[in-house]
Q: What sequence folds into this?
């Protein structure tokens, strides 16, 4: 699309991440640091039942407690606000910030108590009396989709939100013609990203200015629009402040119910209101839960291990409300064959309601579970044929000369060189030595296994899954923007139009603008105007910001460079193309004349008479960037999903004692190709964090409900996170296959590591126990599950 | 979550005396851990207020206790239900009393269901906590008779 600049000075160079300075010295400005005069605080009464009719609510005692100002019920709230937005066309699945008439999961928010301090509000919630009449409930997804199951939203008629079967290519013929088939089931447990900072929001309604000011720990697409719609106020009465640091998210900082709740409270009480979830509120009913997915996979292949066709049924338990979560079954359609040349696919996507907490977006938006299922299939194909797992992958890989490569579901993969990345990793790791190490561990009595995963990170996120899964949705853009201003003294300020949750967007924007304008990025100011002063932008989701914000900054900077060049060329009396811009100065090579940066600033800001005819004064440019490759609505169930596809190849050695069964990762090597890297530190941080996240999903993390619908994992005593004890040293092997669709050849990396780690680590454990004839098909694979399975297998062996 | 309890205890008191004690709210208030008050709402039905701590969470419960299928002085069923900031619970249990030497053997068996915060935060220790609370109940109950026995001597 755009020719790559010949030499990059700042992009890809070893430069510090500018945000890190304030974070490491404790000078971030998080939502909890926002203190507004007269601010009130909220605590929440949760439901203790998975499903129950609310018979009565008595807040009278609570209202007499010290400091208590208000107690809000769902019934009162529902009269004043509209239901929160659903992604699918499911209007009868209504969701309000507080339960209305009925609770639908244990932990659901029922009453909000407002007091002068959080402690007073917490004391008062104990005095709220709620009478419930328990109702039938359903927890299991397979049970939920049956006709006889309890209905989470009886008005909707069924628990099924989405049941769509796509057939891309000649699946039946390929299955009939293939000599070998195998099928299996794997389950991805309900887990999440679990940021250190829970969600928080401060809202202040000013009736005299008719303005709702919102400060939030947010990563929600179309957030101001959703606030406006739910509260039934004009969108230009909603001002979201983007200059709030977000203490971690990776999808889960959705915050819309919390924001509508406190905004409404502020409106009726007439004072600013703050809600910062405590860990309990967050874990059971904040936006903390990610996909929980059952896969039934069948593949058709030949004796060489070439996979011709795949049938996949993905059943996702989205919990008690709809939201955007069913779309997490749609996004993986853009990489449904992984890095492989699978010619045809049948994909059945089912999203079901249940009496669990509502699911929200989590890093990868459903891609990591799907990658786990695909990679398990490839391992099983190799196992069935007695072939080497890496060799089977190589045989199925798309070759580097086949890009752009059209997959059956309608997406063109931009670029890649999978074979080379694998070669580099095997060379770096000395694969033969790794196999010897595994075998030596086995000989010493340990269980040891090697895990392998090759997978893609679709990036540059637009939202093509929305029109694909909801016909009423006609979205074909998911733009991002940048505005650059050179002030009258000659300093450069770049405006970006979103919050960041640790992705280093200020570093990204400064690096790109500095690169194009050939000026020191450290001298560029980055600001985040509030939402009313912002250009059209979307939130940093879908691994998109290097591509989209980076692209917007690039194009805005090019426009500015062009303007400066035109101003100088006009003074020189030459065409723009004959003047040469270098490091902020413009030269006419023929006459040898040069105009410096300061000269150009002077003309732009003060000397209208010297500007080229028709040029506006000032030195300011904007660019609103369309997602590359996104041009049209889906056709025949096919769509170009994301523009870019990063590749990662994981190689892991795991060992454990057969009785203690605590997996220890002895070696972790990842080959990573995300095209041109803009800042190596950011990409490295993403990859390491992503592997830790994937390690948690594989071995430790799960939101568990018991058979009675109670959530058992509400604190970090029971929801286990990986720590430095579990996390290995990770060796990263870089490769760069530039994307032809982006300004520097960059691709996304915000989900790197996480997208393949679960497949790789679970594969290593299955390799370790394969000699016992057992395998694990459910994540997380807990220590107890491993030791129990080994003990059971030993028992059978000994007879 | 579901909870099953059961066991037997020997109390140093005759069957009749134990029966009377177990039907006396004043005794029960002293013996039930955390019990603050117990008000009779109808024959064999009581409203109770309790203050309890389980693991990291503590709070107050309001509940109801009722006795049924009484076969004095041998057996009765007890129904308990309650809710509070900690969570909610309900259960039923059966008590059987039979003479054993100078005392009485009390056998109990029951099951319950617990929800809310206590089920989640306390689940891993709920079994041992319930055993502990039952243990405290019987320790206190035995003390009742030891106290009256020593009074008797004096």
A:
């Amino acid at each position: 699309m755009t020719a790559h600049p010949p030499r990059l000075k700042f992009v890809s160079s070893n430069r510090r991440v500018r945000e890190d300075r304030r974070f490491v010295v404790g000078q971030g400005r998080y939502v909890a640091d926002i203190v507004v005069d007269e601010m009130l605080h909220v605590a929440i009464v949760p439901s203790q039942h998975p499903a129950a009719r609310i018979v009565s609510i008595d807040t009278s005692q609570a209202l007499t407690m010290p400091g208590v100002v208000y107690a809000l019920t769902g019934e009162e709230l529902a009269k004043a606000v509209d239901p929160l937005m659903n992604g699918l066309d499911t209007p009868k699945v209504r969701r309000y910030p507080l339960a209305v008439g009925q609770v639908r999961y244990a932990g659901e928010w029922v009453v909000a108590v407002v007091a002068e301090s959080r402690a007073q509000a917490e004391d008062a919630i104990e005095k709220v009396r709620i009478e419930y009449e328990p109702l039938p409930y359903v927890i299991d997804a397979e049970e939920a989709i049956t006709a006889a199951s309890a209905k989470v939203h009886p008005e909707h008629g069924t628990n099924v939100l989405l049941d769509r079967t796509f057939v891309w290519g000649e699946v039946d013929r390929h299955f009939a013609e293939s000599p070998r088939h195998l099928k299996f089931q794997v389950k991805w447990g309900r887990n999440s990203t679990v940021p250190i900072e829970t969600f928080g929001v401060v809202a202040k309604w000013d009736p005299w200015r008719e303005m709702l000011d919102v400060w939030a720990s947010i990563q929600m697409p179309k957030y101001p629009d959703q606030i406006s719609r739910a509260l039934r106020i004009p969108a230009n009465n909603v001002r979201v402040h983007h200059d709030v640091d977000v203490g971690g998210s990776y999808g889960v900082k959705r915050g819309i119910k919390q924001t509508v709740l406190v905004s409404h409270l502020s409106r009726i009480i007439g004072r600013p209101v703050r809600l910062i979830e405590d860990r309990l509120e967050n874990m059971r009913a904040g936006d903390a839960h990610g996909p929980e997915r059952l896969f039934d996979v069948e593949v058709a292949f030949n004796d060489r291990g070439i996979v011709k066709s795949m049938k996949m049924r993905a059943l996702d338990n989205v919990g008690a409300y709809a939201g955007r979560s069913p779309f997490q079954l749609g996004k993986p359609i853009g990489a449904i064959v992984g890095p492989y040349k699978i010619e045809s696919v049948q994909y059945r996507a089912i999203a079901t309601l249940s009496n669990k907490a509502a699911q929200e977006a989590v890093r990868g938006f459903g891609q990591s579970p799907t990658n786990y299922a695909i990679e398990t299939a490839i391992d099983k194909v190799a196992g069935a044929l007695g072939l080497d797992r890496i060799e089977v992958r190589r045989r199925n890989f798309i070759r580097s000369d086949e890009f752009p490569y059209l997959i059956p579901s309608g997406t063109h993969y931009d670029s890649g060189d999978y074979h080379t990345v694998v070669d580099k990793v095997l060379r770096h790791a000395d694969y033969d030595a790794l196999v010897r190490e595994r075998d030596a561990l086995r000989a010493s009595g340990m269980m040891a296994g090697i895990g392998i995963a090759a997978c893609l990170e679709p990036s540059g996120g637009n939202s093509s899954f929305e029109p694909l899964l909801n016909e009423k949705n006609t979205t074909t853009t998911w733009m991002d923007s940048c505005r650059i201003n050179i002030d009258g003294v000659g300093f450069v300020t770049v405006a970006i139009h979103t919050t960041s949750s640790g992705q280093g967007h200020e570093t990204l924007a400064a690096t790109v603008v500095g690169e194009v304008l050939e000026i020191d990025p450290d001298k560029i100011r980055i600001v985040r105007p509030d939402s009313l002063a912002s250009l059209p932008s979307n939130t940093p989701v879908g691994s998109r910001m290097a591509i989209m914000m980076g692209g917007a900054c690039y194009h805005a900077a090019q426009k500015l460079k062009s303007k400066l060049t035109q101003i100088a060329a006009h003074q020189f009396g030459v065409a723009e193309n004959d003047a040469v811009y270098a490091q902020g100065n413009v030269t006419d090579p023929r006459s040898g004349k040069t105009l410096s940066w300061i000269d150009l600033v002077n003309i732009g800001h003060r000397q209208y008479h010297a500007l080229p005819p028709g040029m506006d004064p000032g030195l300011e440019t904007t660019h609103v960037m369309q997602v590359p490759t996104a041009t049209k609505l889906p056709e025949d169930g096919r769509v170009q999903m994301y523009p870019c596809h990063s590749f990662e190849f994981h190689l892991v050695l795991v060992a454990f004692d057969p009785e203690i069964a605590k997996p220890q990762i002895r070696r972790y090597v990842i080959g990573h190709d995300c095209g041109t890297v803009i800042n190596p530190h950011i990409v490295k941080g993403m990859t390491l964090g992503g592997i830790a996240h994937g390690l948690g999903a594989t071995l430790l993390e799960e939101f568990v409900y018991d058979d009675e619908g109670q959530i058992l994992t509400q604190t970090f005593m029971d929801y286990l996170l990986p720590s430095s004890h579990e996390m290995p040293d990770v060796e990263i092997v870089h490769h760069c296959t530039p994307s032809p669709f982006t300004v520097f050849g960059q691709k996304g990396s915000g989900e790197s590591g996480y997208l393949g780690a679960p497949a790789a680590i679970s594969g290593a454990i299955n390799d370790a126990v394969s000699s016992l004839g057992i395998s694990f098909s459910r994540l997380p694979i807990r220590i107890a599950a491993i030791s129990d399975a080994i003990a059971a297998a030993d028992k059978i062996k000994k007879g | 979550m579901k909870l099953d309890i059961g066991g037997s205890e020997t109390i140093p008191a005759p069957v009749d005396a134990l029966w009377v004690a177990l039907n006396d709210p004043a005794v029960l208030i002293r013996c039930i851990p955390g019990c603050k008050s117990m008000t009779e709402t109808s024959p064999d039905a009581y409203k109770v207020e309790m203050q309890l701590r389980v693991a990291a969470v503590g709070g107050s419960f309001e509940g109801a206790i009722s006795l049924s299928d009484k076969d004095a002085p041998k057996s009765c069923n007890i129904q308990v239900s309650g809710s509070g900031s900690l969570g909610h619970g309900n259960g039923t249990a059966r008590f059987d009393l039979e003479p054993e030497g100078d005392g009485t053997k009390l056998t109990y068996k029951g099951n319950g269901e617990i929800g809310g915060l206590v089920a989640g935060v306390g689940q891993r220790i709920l079994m041992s906590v319930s055993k502990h609370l039952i243990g405290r109940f019987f320790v206190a109950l035995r003390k009742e008779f030891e106290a009256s026995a020593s009074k008797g001597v004096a």
